[in-house]
Fold:
Amino acid sequence: MAHAIKYHPGIALLEQFAEGCLSADVALAVSAHIDLCPHCQQLQRDITTDLAGSLMQQRVKADHTDWNSMLNDIMSQQEPASAQTEIIDVTAQVQVAGREFTLPRALQRLAAKHGKWLQLGGIATAKIPAGGDHHISLLYISKDTEVPQHTHLGLEMTLVLAGKIADENGEYCAGDLLINSPDDTHTPHTLPDEDCLCLSVLSAPLQFKKGLTRLLNPLQQFFY
Structure:
């Protein structure tokens, strides 16, 4: 990528990802970031190697399982006549607002089944059926558009997939992963000459803070 990715998951989060301890929703965001970030790809390889070394040093308990018999039993079973394999059209692109964006590998299968795009002004969202406790969606923000100031009732993870977004704390480009908690309040916005596509992971709705935008709080189904 032309720019240096500055915002990454912490080492503890990468270790939990390698150990398979994260929820599927959070793991999806971390995996998509790794797809976009050479630095975290190397870290992940190092962490995985260290974990493998630790497992090799553990003493293995005696196993008296008759694996050959178990394998023969499995191979002798007939596949149910009604069993069908679902064929999913996996695509690397997503289209919104007349634009086409390339998605990281980790998102392609689920994003191919995204819901209908819902639009409010210059903001559009489409839910992704991840099936976990968090709400996952694709979030498109057109040029020179502001998301009203809000805080978070839970965890908010935002992975920039394309373009650039900014808030009071800085600017974020493709590959940057932002993690916000209920302690964080911000006003994300795009720049006058660049739109943005993000992956949004929320464990609870947003809470709008200022003036008339507080009236949006009952409309949380748009974001959550």
